[in-house]
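Format notes (please read before filing issues)

Several people have asked whether sequences and structure tokens are stored in separate files. They are not. Every record keeps both together, in the order shown below: the sequence lines, then the token lines. Line labels are part of the format and must not be stripped during preprocessing.
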Amino acid sequence: MNLQPLTDAELNKLADVLKRFGDKRAMNLEMLDGFFAALICGPNDVPPSEYLPEIWGGDMVNEAAFRTKPILQEFISLVTRHWNATCDTLQSGNGFLPLLLNDESGVACANDWANGFVRGMEMRRDGWADLMDDEEQGGSLIPILALAHEHHPDPEMRPYKEPISAEMREKLIVGAAAGVMAIYDYFEAERMVGARRRGSAATFRREAPKGNRRIGTASVTSAGCLPSTIASTRTGAKGYQSRTRPT
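Then the structure lines:
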């Protein structure tokens, strides 16, 4: 695969298609980025047949959002490439850069990104239990959960009684970005075991080449990436450098 990141124009296209979904649970571009980060760095495989409905917020595709087949095909292509971008970045270990949207004040709050990550965790809730209970490594989730619950309807669930300062928000975003890399490493062995099991099952059934699992028309590799004729990576210097975009 030729792994290249989505261009700004392609990200804008993806954002525009996401806006077509009318469901309240449908994701925006920032939430999608956090959602994919959780799915890829988590312990268990989640196939497209499960996570695509979560993106558009329901079991069925909103027909009004896709009046023509090319729009649907373009959406699947862009989503696949963004998945591969996140997958390749985490595999490379070169530093994860969350995709954040600026609000009307020009501030990247990262709440949608963190909520997308939590929604990804909920897809395989039981698989995350070990990390949640790990006293040494569980701290990698704290910045993400703090941002996700900043505006929780129940005040008791909010991490801070006072509004988060700009300096604290920056620290939380830095911590969330570093946390994604730490979580990816934490679950790596478990993902590898699962990949070997899927590869063995595929060989036994002779339904797909070893190391791949066929789901509908998509094939998921043992590394967790979705193949595409034009795949992508996010690149950046080691450490944290958020990618912000206007809403």
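For reference, the curators noted about this record: The domain at 8-246 is CATH 1.20.120.740 (Four Helix Bundle (Hemerythrin (Met), subunit A)). The chain is about 50% helix and 5% strand.
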